Amino acid sequence: MAREKWGSKLGVILAVAGSAIGLGNFLRFPVQAARNGGGAFMIPYFAALFLLGIPLMWIEWTIGRFGGGFGHSTAPGMFHSIWNKNRFIKYFGVIGIFGPLVIFVYYTYIESWLLGYSLFSLTGKYNGCNSEQSMTAFLQGYQGVAKNAFFGGIGPSYLFFVITFLLNILVVYLGVSRGIERVCKYGLPILFAFAVVLVVRVLSLGTPDPTKPDYNVVNGLGFLWNPDWGALKSAKVWLAATGQIFFTLSCGFGVILTYASYLTKNDDVALSGLTASAANEVAEVILGGSIVIPAAVAFFGPASVSAIAQGGAFNLGFVTMPLALQRMAFGGIFGFMWFMLLFIAGLTSSISLALPALVFLEDEFNLSRRKASLIFAVATFVLAQPVIFLLGNGVVDELDFWGGTFCVVVFAAVETILFGWVFGMEEAWKEMHVGSDIRIPSVYRFIIKYVTPAFLFFILGFWFWQEWMPTILLKNVPAENVRYVIGTRLALVALFVLLVFLVWRSWRNKDMRRTQDAV
Amino acid sequence: MRSEGWVFLAVSWSVILLLFLFSMVRTLRQKDKRRQQGKNL
Fold first, then answer.
1. What is the CATH number of the domain that holds A379?
2. CB 3.0 to 4.6 Å from A95: which of A215, A411, A436, A454, for a disulfide?
3. How far is B7 from chain A (nearest CA, A)?
4. Is the dihedral of CA A79, A82, A84, A89 positive or negative?
């Protein structure tokens, strides 16, 4: 069976950019920056972008294209292709399937709220909510966490989840060129257009209430950009900036490896990786930084926003923003644009998260796309049920920590060592420049070999030093959530073991076929 | 917003826009070059 290919170079760049541009660009970044030193946050942020993010992008694009040349679209096969003398390395590659799979399970549910809210904006369903309390009650009613006057049960939320879930499955079933590339080619321009309209609207708000002169957009920008120099002395701020770069560029997840595996041998990876990173940064720093915080400060003032930002990115997106947008003329339309742009950002990311597990079944077990999609759909639909029905019991936080934080750093560390040290920098540098449209500055030979892995091991070491024991011993978990958290951890261990078994089984099958052919 | 805040905003936006323009222009130029080469063949 012939391998799929991307339809165009711009198509694959948009797909990778789409994978990177997610909810984090518009919700997580402004909150992280505002909490961690404002403008000063950008110093560790740019250090992490140039020393960690962009090198990791190049590493993943190159490993992906290299592995694709051997018919592998996921990390186990790719790692084995790089270090075929080591029979254990393929099991480290399991992290590159496990992480995206775990994130997909809860991410599609959150994505479905955005679809629901974009419709509610147009129909004016939350228009009666004029305070933070009532908007929070609306959200909790929708999530099924509380029964109230807004929603009698979880039905509407579940319906939007099923629609979103099926949409994701349909896109990945259609494949990289007909499904993913097409969605990103149309979706990203719409996303950017909506974001630009919202930025223009927010920046032209001025001082909405003249009786409160401090509540204005310029102060909103100041809230985000005024530097707090003292923050640079805190290791926590440097870690937050590094985490944000990981999160925003989708590095260390394994999804870029899969996307790049559909490139041909002479397709460029250096310029494409840089373009996808730059597009993501425009969406994050320029667009994402100019919507939520300035709008919230203009309507609710710096003191309230400070408290809201401490409450987390979700409050800002689902409570503060709809409240602020309602106070504008044509608030329903702007509300629709806000939630729809987030939904598109979520969709272009979740389809990338679905792909590694699906193509693993296809590649390593010779299943048809239809069969692999069906198995993937059934498995993830079942796994999503605890996320939906046990929301608020710590299940999502647990999945997010292990799938979206811990595994990401471990996986990035493994692939960096494999690339710079096992594959060897000479060979790796040559491979990065095959078909390349730009020359990567030579200083990156040093950065990729020494600085990026050192950066990653420092993060891991710091985490072990500060967080390992409290995390394992559930120190920060409320007593009523302990049983759910333990259940989630056991399920995650079982899923990981199952994936390790599947990798072992597929290699054993291949070895048996080779032996039979030889006989 | 303090003047330092404006400086951080201006520098950050400039770095990102320059990176984006550089990479996008190069990407589109390569696309045109390939199309031309295809026509010449």
1. 1.20.1740
2. A411
3. 9
4. negative
Of A226, A282, A437, the CB nearest to B1: A226
Yes or no, beta carbons of B8 and A13 under 8 Å apart? no
pLDDT above 60: residue B41:
no
* 3-class state of residue A86 by DSSP: coil
Does A1 map to a domain? no
Q: What tens digit of pLDDT does each residue of A173-204 get?
A: 999 999 999 999 999 999 999 999 999 999 99
Indicate yes or no: CB of B12 within 8 angstroms of CB of A46.
yes
Quick one: closest CA in B to A8, which residue? B31
Residue A498 in any domain: the answer is: yes
- Contact flag A271-B30 (C-beta cutoff 8 Å): yes
Best to test chain A binding among B6, B12, B35, B37 (most A CBs inside 10 Å): B12
Q: Within a domain: residue A4?
A: no
The residue range of the domain holding A233 is: 9-518
- Counting the structural domains of chain A, the total is 1
Over residues A80-119, the pLDDT tens digits come to: 999 988 999 999 999 999 999 999 999 999 999 999 999 9
With respect to residue A3, please indicate whether it lies within any of the assigned structural domains: no
Are the beta carbons of A274 and B16 separated by less than 8 Å? no
Following DSSP, what letter does each residue of A238-291 receive, concatenated? HHHHHHHHHHHHTTTSSHHHHHHTTS-TTS--HHHHHHHHHHHHIIIIIIGGGT
| CA terminus-to-terminus distance, chain A | 24
Q: What is the ipTM of this complex?
A: 0.89
**Interchain CB distance below 8 Å, A225 and B31:** no
